[in-house]
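Quick one:
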Amino acid sequence: MLVSLHIRNYILIDSLDITFPEGLIIITGQTGAGKSIMLGALSLLSGAKADVSMIFQDADSCVVEAEFKLRSEELSAILKDEDIDADGDEVVIRRVLNRSGRSRCFVNDCPVSVSVLQEISSLLIDIHSQHKSLLLSDKQFQLAVLDHFAGNGQLLQQCGSSYRKQSALKAEIAKLSAQLSRAQADSDYNNAQLQQLQEAALKEGELEELETEHRTLANAEQIQAALYAVQQSLNPHDQSIASSLKEAARRLDGISAFLEDSASFSARLESARYEIEDISDEVQSAIQKLDLSPDRLQWVEDRLSLLYSLMRKHNCANVSELIELRDRLALEVVDASSLEETISERQHELGAVQAELRKICDALSDSRRKAAPDFASQILSSLVFLELESAQFELQVDSLQEPTERGADKVSFLFSSSGRELADVSKVASGGEISRIMLCLKAMMARFVGMPTLIFDEIDTGVSGSVADKMGQMICKMGQDMQVFSITHLPQVAAKGKAHYLVSKQGDMSRPITRIIRIDGEERVKEIARLLSGATITPEAISNAKSLLHEGLS
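Output:
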C-alpha cells in the first residue's frame, strides 16, 4: 500500500507531505484544481517521461517520493538482483528532476535506471486513467487478464522459457548456416592457402637467422680475406705474437728479484698472451666454418624470396603473422568440416524444444478454453449488477499458426449491450459501458491477483444515478481487500470512501498553488453536497450528502 507521498516543486505543488490509510480513498476537487497533478507525480514514479516544464516556478529541481509497504517474493527478487537494500516490507522510491533536464531515480536511496524503476513501481502501483480503457482493444491485455484468471503463471513461465530457447537455437542455426555457406564458398581457396603455408614449413625467428646468414654468405670472400689478414697480423713472419709475449714474460720473471715491478709486467703480459691466443683460435675457427658454397647461398636466397613473397601476398609484417594465419586457416578448415555436424545437432535440439513448446502451448490453450466461460460469466454478472441487464459478454479463444512467448492463442472480448449480435468490445461499447467493463475486470483481478495499490482516475466517467452508486459499491468492496484510490466527480462514489482528500487551488493567477488535504465531518458533507448541487450548496444537497455518507459508511 501507499503509505506516504512527498512532493517538492512539482508543477503547481510547491510542497506536499501526506499520508494515506488502507482501504478505499476518495479524491475530489473542482475542475482544474489539480487532481491530475497528484496522478502525474505518481506517474513520474512509475517511470513516465520527465520534462523540465514539470518543475515549479523559479525552482531548480523537483522531487517526488513515495513510501510503500509490500511483501512480495517478486519484488524481493528484483531488489536482490539490483543489489538494493531492503529492510522489512518498506520500499521508498524517489525521482529527482533538474532544470538541466537530467532525471535521477532512487529505490531505498540506491540509484537505479528508469527501466528498473518502472519494473519495481509496476509491482507497487497500478494507475487506471481514462485512456487506459483503450486496453480493451489490446489483445495482449485481454490475453493477460484471462491468464491471470486461469492461474496460468507457471505455464506462461515455461512457455516463455521454451520460446526463448527456440529463438536462441534458431538464431544459432542461422548463424552456423551462414558460416557454413561462407566456409563452403571459401573452401577451395582456404585449402590452397593453407597448403602453401604448410608446405613452407615456417619457423619462428627463421627470417632473422636467414637474413644474417645471407649477409655472411654474400660477403664470404671479403670476410675470409679479412680473417686471414688478422691471422697474419697475429703471426707475422710465422712468428706467433703469443709466443713472443710468453718469452717476454719469462725474461721479466728472471729479473723479479732485482726489479720490483717486473712481476706486475709479467702478469699483464700473460693476460695479453691468453687473450691473443683465444682471439687467434676463434679467428681460425671462423675461417674453418666459413661456407663459400654458392649452392648454400642460392638456397638461402630462394628461402628468403619465398618468405618475402608469402609476407607480401598475405599482407603480413613477419613470419610470426604468417604462422598465425596458417593456424587460423587450419582451424577454419576444421570448423568447416564440423559445421554440418554441429548444425545437425542444433536442429535436433530445436525439434525437441519445439515439441516441448507445442505441448506447453496446448496446455495453455486447454486452460484458457476451460476458464473462458467462467471468466465471461463473472464479468457478465458484474455488468448486470451495474444495470446492463441485457448485456452479453463472451471470450473467443482462437489458435495462432505459430507459437509466441505467451502461447499459441489470441483472445477477443465480445460484447453486446442489447443481447443481440456480439462484436469486439472496443468497437461496440460506449464510453460508459467501457468504464463499467474495465471496473468489472479490475474488480475480478483484485480477487484472484495480488494487485498493488490501485488508482482509478474517473473510471466512473459516463455513468450517473444508481449505476454510479453501484460502481461505488464495487470500488468500495475492492477497498476491503486492498488499497484503492478513486478520483471522482460522482457523489455516489465519493461517499463510499474510508478516507476523503480534497484538492484545491490557492493563490492568485500569477502563482497558483495546489493543495491536498484530508477532510472529515462537516467539511466532507459540504464537499459531497457540492458534487450534488454544484457551486451553490443547498440545504437539500446537505441533507442528501449526509444520507449518502451514512449509507456509504454503514
